[in-house]
Amino acid sequence: MQSGHQSVADVTILLIESNAAASRQTEAALTAYWGDALRLLRCASGRDAIPVIRSGVADVILADLSTVCDLGQSSEAAFSRLAQMARSALVIALSDGDSVSAAVEALRAGAHDFLAKPVAGAALAARLEELGRRHGKARALGCEAAVVGAANDFEGFVGKSPQMRAIYDQITRIAPSNAPVFITGESGTGKEVSAEALHKRSPRAERPFIAINAAAIPRELMESELFGAARGAYTGAMVERHGAIEAANGGTLFLDEIGEMDLSLQSKLLRFLQTGTITRIGESSSRAVDVRIVCATNRNPMQLVSEKKFREDLFYRLHVLPIHLPPLRQRPGDVMPLALNFLERFAQEEGKDFNGFDPDVADLFVAREWPGNVRQLQNLVRRIVVMFDGGLVNATMANAADIESRAEIASGRKPRSSGPSGVVLPMWQQEQRIIEEALDAYGGNIAKAAAALEISPSTIYRKRLGWERQGAA
C-alpha cells in the first residue's frame, strides 16, 4: 500500500529463487492463498533482483539463501547488502530446513525472519501479521484483505484474515442446522453480527430474528420479556403480551449476555428447550413454539458454571455448536479494512469527503491493542469524521480523536496481559512467550534478543522452527 488512499490489497511480494521448481511451488502456494490480492514478482538471482529492490515496489522480499549468494562473499554479507537496499520492505530468508547456520547469519545481517521451504501461504500470512505488529509495517498486512468495496462480502462482516475466514466457513457449515449455537468472544467482536449471519444463511431466513440482551433488562421484567404475559397477570398488564420466544416463532432467538440471566429464569429456559413449549405469565396452558436458539457471552462460560452463576445442564443444552470470535488484536490484518469501511460509511452519513488514512495512521492503528475491539475502532473513526472536515486522515487527527488512549495514559493503566491469570502454561508455551517478548523488546533483532537471554541465536531459530511445526501438526 504505497499511499493512504490505495487499496489495502495492493501488496507486492518479490520472490528471489533460482530453482525453477521451487519457484513454481512457492508461487502456487502464495497464489492459492491470496489470489488477486497478491502481485508476485520473480527474479532468478540476487543481481537480477537489485533493480526491483531499489525501485521500492516490493512490500515483502522472499529471498532464497543460495540464490542471493552472488550479492556477497557469504550469506551474511549477501543479506546485509540486500537488507540495506530493501529500505521499508520486510525481508524473509528462505532455505531448506537444515540450513540453521545460514539462516542465523541472514538474521544477523538484517533479515526480519526465516522460513523453511516449501513455503505455505497460511504460514507466511501468520508470520507477516507478527512481523507487521513488531516492525510497524501495516502495509505488509494488507495482503490478507480485499479492497474496501469488496471487504463487506459476508453478511455484514468486514475482514479477510485467516481467523475470520475460518469463522465464515464455520457459520456457513452450521447455519442450516436447528441445533443451538453458543457464541463466545470479548465485547465488540461481533457476536450479534454472527447471530444475524447464522439466521440469514439458515432455512429460517424469511422468519423473524429477535435479539434480546439479558444484561440490559431488569430481572423482574425478564420473564415477561421472554415468555410473555396474559392480560391482568400483574399490575399494569392491561393487554396480552407476546414474549420474545413467541415473537421469534419459526425463526431465530438471539440471547445476548446469557450469563447474566437469573438462575430461576434459567430453569424456565431449560424447560422450554426440553419441551419446545412456553407458558405465559398468568396462564396455565402451554404453547408450542419452534425457535432456534443462538446465545452469546463475553465471559468464560465454564467459569460461570464453576461459580454457580450458570446452570450446568443449561450450558450443555446450549453449547452444541460453539463459535469463538477472535479479538481484533489477534487479527491485525483486518484493522485497516475495517477502518476504511467505517470511514467510507460515516463520511457518507456526515456528507464529508475523506480520502483514506495516512500510512503513519495505519501503522498506529495496527499496533494498537484495541481492548474494545471492532466497536472501539468504529467509535474512533466516527469521531474522526465528526471532528474534521475531510481529506487524508493523518496522525494528528487520529490522536485528537483517540480519547481512550489519552484516558489510559492519564490513569497510568498497564497494558492488558495476553493470558488469563491463574493459568499455568506448558513449559514450551512459557518459553515461547519469553523469547517472543525478548524479540519484541529488541525490535525483532534475534542476535540482541539472544544476547539478552544469554542463549545463542541458533537456539531461538530452532525453537521457533519447532513451534511452527508443532502448530502445523
From TrEMBL:
Ranges where the Sigma-54 factor interaction domain occurs: 157-386
Xref: Gene3D superfamilies: 1.10.8.60, 3.40.50.2300, Homeodomain-like (1.10.10.60), P-loop containing nucleotide triphosphate hydrolases (3.40.50.300)
Alphabetical list of PROSITE patterns matching this protein: RESPONSE_REGULATORY (PS50110), SIGMA54_INTERACT_2 (PS00676), SIGMA54_INTERACT_3 (PS00688), SIGMA54_INTERACT_4 (PS50045)
Modified residues (4-aspartylphosphate): D64
Entry-linked InterPro entries: AAA+_ATPase, AAA_lid_NorR, CheY-like_superfamily, Homeodomain-like_sf, HTH_Fis, P-loop_NTPase, Sig_transdc_resp-reg_receiver, Sigma_54_int
Any one Gene Ontology BP term: phosphorelay signal transduction system
SMART domains in UniProt: AAA, REC
Record SUPFAM superfamilies: CheY-like, Homeodomain-like, P-loop containing nucleoside triphosphate hydrolases
Entries under CDD domains matching the protein: AAA
Molecular-function annotations in GO: ATP binding; sequence-specific DNA binding
Name recorded for this polypeptide: Sigma-54-dependent Fis family transcriptional regulator
Organism: Pelagibacterium lentulum
Lineage, highest ranks first: Bacteria, Pseudomonadati, Pseudomonadota, Alphaproteobacteria, Hyphomicrobiales
